[in-house]
């Protein structure tokens, strides 16, 4: 379990990072997914571009009505409360249950989201937020709504020439409700079904159902789910036509429990 | 116990822990000789194929079977009638028989470069249909894995007691088909080998992570055609064994041959992928059990068809049949079974060879017997404790010889059960069940034969038979006591417990006792650490060597005291006559450095003794235990939570109760793994599907509940201090007890789990099967 030979580059600024990307380098941040893939030789890139030293990569910047979280922010910093406000409290709760602390010390929000493992926690939670992924490409910045960012299993809306620079989330108004539930047989195991619901006062509640080996299901208006969690969760999950009855049961429970918590 | 509080029975802190806790243990991976070449193996990507050849890269050191003709096959035959022998080539020759089988050894200055070489090799093979399921392997049209065999079976054993009349007599009859998963033992440290050729001694030095250095030495000498004096095996600190390090590895042979060939040290360190998928297979059993009982639950008979998936080859030294054939001899468990009919088959499949894992066949057997008993109890409407109590061997029958000839040395089995149940608030549990909670109580009672010796093993006819265990005791000139044993300590705490034994006999402070082990050049021959034997066998041997050493010291001490020998005694580390005494330090100093002070007629043997020990009879000690578990089942997700776990255990005299508790806890954690988590699935093509510890789930700290251990102490009448082998016990009971608890919780739905591990998916499937999901 040793990687095939590769070159390593550490871009000092974003334009160098984009240039490395254009030259075919594979970007890495915390390396918590790429590392094992390299060791198993499932990934054999010629060059790895280590993004960790880019300016602002791990910076959390609170603006007037939103917070901009650098893509290189580790799960551990989020867990430890680096993101302010209720949004920070929600993210801290999610971060706390990502794998183990050793993973959280290195793994990053942006790395996890861009890798888009269907079982990853940020893939489940962030699409519920009315926020944006900030992509940087040769043409400049592009704002991608979080609900559309993950497009499939290990697939995201970034173009090949783009890097995820940050995630921008709104500061949450008073009265925001949140629910989340996931199923793991032990800490550190990949989730077998995850769901979350975010209800902002005055707008339609949003829900996400994920970790089902497919693209996360984003429900833009989950009002019906909040009104009748049990029945509506059953209806939604049935529509997914999952092959495994156990995962189907977990998906129902996940969606219902998240909805009940947020209701 | 001695008045010092450091002898047999003391919970002395472990002497070895200082280096372990400070991270100063020294394992194979910590050793890197100058000029070493690292080895990576090209391994079979397929389960079954005809191998036509290997195209090697243009540059680099790559060796295939054709290049290493000096390595003979690994042969672990059994003398049991009908056994089919399988030669396991160290590197595949004409066929590939499981994924991960070594094909070529690739050597380079670093492991990464060696893996690059392996990746550049192109094996040329023609794939054959794979046999990935043990029951399918036995079908008449199954592809043959060893083509000169008539069927894919290493061995079949049977016993044919009459059972045809029982349907008419019995008040209850149940039949269950049960399965245990294939597992991969997962010690923290994998295997690892360094081989070096010493031209001065003309000796091969193999440093290997093994629990049986002497057996490994014999195996290497046999397969390489060397005399045993030309091979020295060193086993340094070993990070967990559990049976996985009690086998001869193809990788050891290849490294040894390459070191001789190249004149350079070579090293192979197993990685987790190799451990999980290519090497550490264990546990996979199938049972078809029928049991009959009378109205009170008294067992009338059991009929068992058992198949064990032994994989593609017979592993050295325990062979491919030990596990299945053992089922026939241990299925009756701690019960007075009057009739027993069985057929066992060691099936051959396209999987890595099965290896004996802590508990060996007992874990599966206990699961089969105990779940069957519960099924009978449910059918009869009697209590799970009651059906056990009526069938357990009673204490007044000890020593008890059961119908297959196993002799239980001592114990009060029903009392262990009673105490375990008494620790549970059964009334409260039943009230919760009545209120609709899906909770249950599970019980398992079992006994564990340990330290069984010559009389048991000669019948198996496998490559080794344990005889007298030997230990060497000697004083150094400053009075430090050195013990030398041929078996190995890798978590058992023998550096402490054998010092306690020596202290018990000689009075030397355990701090001044050194244990030398893990080096065939320094220690007497031993079959090693396996079968829960170390404390009985090495404990007995050390005690005997120390006793004889004490006799020698007594003679010298009496001479120094100028007293008649018979007037002197050995007490608290000194030779004493009345008020006068000579310490053992003084005795040692005199013998080695002031011999002028000795009379001419003193014992010339000096202060160095090698003594042998074997209990009589040597059919083994039987420790036993009752496990009681309260488990809660989440009906929606199938998840199981262990709410309470109680163990009542009798290991006879406990040399160090703290270490025994550690053994029981560690074993139980592994048993919880077997019960709920661990599974190495294979697809129809024979591909192992859990290649990382993210897929192969091991229980962690958060999955192991607080476990209560209560000890009973019924000394074995046959061993030196009354101690019994107990090292594997904890790993035997959990699957039975936990699944019984789950099934008790599911009983009101009429659902039952029959396959291990009892994953949430399986629990939910059991509920779905009866329409209760």
Total helical elements of chain B:
19
Number of domains of chain B: 3
Low-confidence stretches of chain A: none
Distance between the termini of chain B: 57 Å
Give the quaternary arrangement of the chains. Answer: heterodimer
Please name the CATH topology of the largest domain in chain A.
Uridine Diphospho-n-acetylenolpyruvylglucosamine Reductase, domain 3
Count of helices of chain A?
10
The tally of structural domains of chain A comes to 3
CATH classification class of the largest domain in chain A? Alpha Beta
Helical residue percent band of chain B: 25-40%
Tell me about the largest β-sheet of chain A: 5 strands, antiparallel
Gap between N and C termini of chain A, in Å?
47 Å
Widest sheet of chain B: strand order? Answer: 3-5-1-13-10-11-12
CATH architecture of the largest domain in chain B: 2-Layer Sandwich
The helix/strand order of chain A is: EHEHEEEHHHHHEEEEEEEEEHHH
Mean pLDDT of chain B: 96
Per DSSP, what share of the residues of chain B sits in E-state strands of 2 or more residues? Answer: 15-25%
Strand order of the largest sheet of chain A: 4-5-10-6-7
Model description:
The complex is a heterodimer of chains A (263) and B (773). Chain A has 263 residues and is α+β, with helices and mostly antiparallel strands. Chain A has three domains: 7-50, Uridine Diphospho-n-acetylenolpyruvylglucosamine Reductase, domain 2; 60-170, Uridine Diphospho-n-acetylenolpyruvylglucosamine Reductase, domain 3; 177-262, Enolase-like, domain 1 (2-Layer Sandwich). Chain A has ten helices and 14 strands. Chain A has a five-stranded antiparallel sheet with strand order 4-5-10-6-7. Chain A has a four-stranded antiparallel sheet with strand order 11-12-13-14. A three-stranded parallel sheet of chain A has the order 1-3-2, covered by helices on one side. In chain A, strand 4 and strand 5 (66-70) form a beta hairpin. In chain A, helix 9 packs antiparallel against helix 10 (245-262). In chain A, 49% of the residues are buried. With 773 residues, chain B is an alpha+beta fold. The N and C termini of chain B lie far apart (57 Å). In chain B, a hairpin with a 2-residue loop joins strand 25 and strand 26. The mean pLDDT of chain B is 96. Chain B folds into three domains: 17-25 and 468-613, Aldehyde Oxidoreductase, domain 4, CATH 3.30.365.10; 31-130 and 191-238 and 245-279, Aldehyde oxidase/xanthine dehydrogenase, a/b hammerhead (Aldehyde Oxidoreductase, domain 3); 361-454 and 619-682 and 689-769, Aldehyde Oxidoreductase, domain 4, CATH 3.30.365. The longest helix of chain B is centred in the C-terminal third of the chain and has 28 residues, at 534-561. In chain B, strands 3-5-1-13-10-11-12 form a seven-stranded mixed sheet.
């Amino acid at each position: 379990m040793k990687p095939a030979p590769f070159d390593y580059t550490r871009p000092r600024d974003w334009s160098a990072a984009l240039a490395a990307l254009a030259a075919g380098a594979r970007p890495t941040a915390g390396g918590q997914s790429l590392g094992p893939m390299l060791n198993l030789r499932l990934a054999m890139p010629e060059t790895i571009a280590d993004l960790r030293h880019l300016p602002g990569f791990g910076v959390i910047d609170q603006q007037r009505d939103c917070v901009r979280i650098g893509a290189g922010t580790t799960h551990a910093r989020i867990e430890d409360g680096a993101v302010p406000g209720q949004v920070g409290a929600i993210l801290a709760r999610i971060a706390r249950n990502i794998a183990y602390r050793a993973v959280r010390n290195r793994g990053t929000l942006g790395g996890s989201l861009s890798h888009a493992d269907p079982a990853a926690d940020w893939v489940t939670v962030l699409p519920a937020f009315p926020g944006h992924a900030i992509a940087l490409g040769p043409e400049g910045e592009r704002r991608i709504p979080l609900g559309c960012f993950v497009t499939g299993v290990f697939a995201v809306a970034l173009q090949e020439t783009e890097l995820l620079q940050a995630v921008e989330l709104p500061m949450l108004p008073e009265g925001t409700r949140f629910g989340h539930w996931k199923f793991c047989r032990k800490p550190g195991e990949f989730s077998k079904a995850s769901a979350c619901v975010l209800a902002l006062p005055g707008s339609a509640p949003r829900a996400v159902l994920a970790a089902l080996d497919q693209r996360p299901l984003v429900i833009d208006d989950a009002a019906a789910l909040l009104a009748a969690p049990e029945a509506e969760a059953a209806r939604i999950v049935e529509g997914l036509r999952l092959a495994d009855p156990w995962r189907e049961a977990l998906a129902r429970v996940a969606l219902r429990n998240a909805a009940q918590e947020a209701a | 116990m001695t008045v010092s509080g450091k002898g047999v029975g003391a919970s002395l802190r472990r002497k070895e822990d200082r280096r372990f806790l400070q991270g100063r243990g020294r394992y194979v991976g910590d050793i890197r000789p100058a000029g070493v070449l690292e080895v990576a193996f090209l391994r079979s990507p397929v389960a079954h194929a005809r191998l036509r050849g290997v195209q090697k890269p243009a540059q680099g050191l790559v060796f295939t079977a054709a290049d290493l003709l000096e390595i003979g096959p690994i042969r672990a035959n059994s003398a049991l009638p009908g056994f089919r022998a399988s030669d396991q080539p160290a590197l595949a020759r004409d066929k590939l028989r499981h994924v991960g089988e070594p094909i070529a050894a690739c050597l380079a200055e670093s492991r990464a470069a060696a893996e690059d070489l392996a990746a550049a090799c192109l094996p040329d093979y023609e794939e054959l249909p794979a046999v990935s399921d043990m029951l399918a392997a036995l079908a008449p049209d199954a592809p043959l894995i060893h083509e000169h065999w008539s069927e894919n079976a290493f061995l079949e054993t049977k016993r044919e007691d009459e059972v045809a009349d029982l349907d008419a007599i019995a008040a209850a009859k149940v039949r269950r088909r049960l399965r245990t998963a294939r597992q991969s033992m997962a010690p923290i440290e994998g295997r690892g080998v360094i081989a070096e050729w010493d031209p001065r001694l003309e000796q091969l030095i193999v440093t290997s992570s093994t629990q049986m250095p002497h057996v490994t030495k014999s195996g290497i000498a046999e397969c390489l055609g060397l005399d045993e004096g030309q091979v020295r095996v060193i086993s340094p600190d070993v990070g967990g064994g559990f049976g996985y390090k009690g086998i001869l590895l193809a990788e050891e042979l290849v490294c040894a041959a390459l070191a001789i060939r190249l004149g350079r040290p070579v090293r192979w360190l197993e990685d987790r992928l190799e451990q999980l998928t290519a090497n550490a297979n264990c546990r996979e059993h199938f049972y078809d059990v029928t049991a009959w009982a009378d109205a009170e639950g008294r067992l009338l008979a059991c009929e068992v068809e058992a198949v064990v998936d032994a994989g593609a080859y017979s592993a050295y030294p325990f062979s491919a049949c030990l596990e299945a054939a053992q089922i026939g001899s241990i299925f009756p468990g701690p019960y007075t079974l009057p009739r027993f009919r069985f057929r066992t088959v060691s099936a051959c499949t396209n999987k890595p060879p099965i290896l004996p894992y802590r508990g060996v066949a007992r874990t599966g057997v206990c699961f089969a017997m105990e779940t069957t008993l519960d099924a009978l109890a449910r059918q009869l409407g009697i209590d799970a404790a009651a059906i056990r109590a009526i069938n357990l061997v009673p204490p007044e029958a000890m020593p008890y010889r059961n119908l297959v000839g196993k002799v239980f040395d001592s114990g009060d089995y029903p009392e262990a059960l009673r105490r375990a149940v008494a620790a549970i608030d059964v009334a409260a549990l039943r009230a919760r069940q009545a209120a609709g909670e899906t909770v249950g109580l599970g019980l398992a009672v079992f006994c564990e034969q340990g330290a069984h010796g010559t009389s048991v093993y000669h019948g198996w006819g496998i490559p080794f038979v344990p005889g007298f265990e030997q230990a060497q005791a000697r004083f150094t000139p400053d009075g430090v006591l050195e013990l030398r044993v041929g078996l190995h300590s890798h978590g058992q705490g023998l550096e402490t417990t054998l010092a306690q034994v020596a202290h018990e006999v000689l009075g030397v402070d355990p701090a001044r006792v050194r244990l030398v082990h893990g080096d065939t050049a320094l220690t007497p021959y031993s079959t090693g650490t396996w079968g829960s034997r170390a404390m009985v066998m090495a404990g007995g041997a050390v005690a005997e060597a120390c006793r004889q050493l004490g006799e020698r010291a007594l003679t010298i001490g009496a001479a120094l005291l100028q007293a008649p020998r018979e007037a002197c005694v050995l007490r608290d580390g000194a030779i004493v006559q009345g008020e006068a005494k000579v310490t053992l330090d003084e005795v040692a100093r005199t013998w080695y450095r002031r011999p002028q002070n000795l009379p001419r007629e003193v014992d010339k043997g000096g202060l160095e003794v090698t003594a042998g020990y074997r209990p009589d009879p040597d059919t083994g000690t039987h420790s036993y235990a009752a496990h009681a578990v309260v488990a809660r089942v989440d009906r929606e997700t199938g998840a199981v939570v262990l709410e309470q776990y109680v163990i009542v255990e009798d290991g006879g005299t406990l040399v160090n109760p703290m270490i025994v508790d550690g053994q029981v806890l560690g074993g139980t954690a592994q048993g919880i793994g077997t019960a709920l988590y661990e599974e190495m699935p294979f697809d129809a093509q024979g591909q192992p599907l859990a290649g990382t510890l993210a897929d192969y789930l091991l229980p962690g700290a958060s999955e192991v509940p607080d476990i209560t251990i209560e000890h009973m102490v019924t000394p074995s009448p046959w061993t030196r201090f009354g101690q019994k082998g107990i090292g594997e016990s904890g790993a035997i009971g959990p699957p039975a007890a936990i699944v019984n608890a789950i099934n008790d919780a599911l009983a009101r739905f009429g659902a039952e789990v029959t396959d291990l591990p009892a994953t949430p998916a399986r629990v939910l499937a059991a509920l779905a099967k009866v329409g209760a999901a």
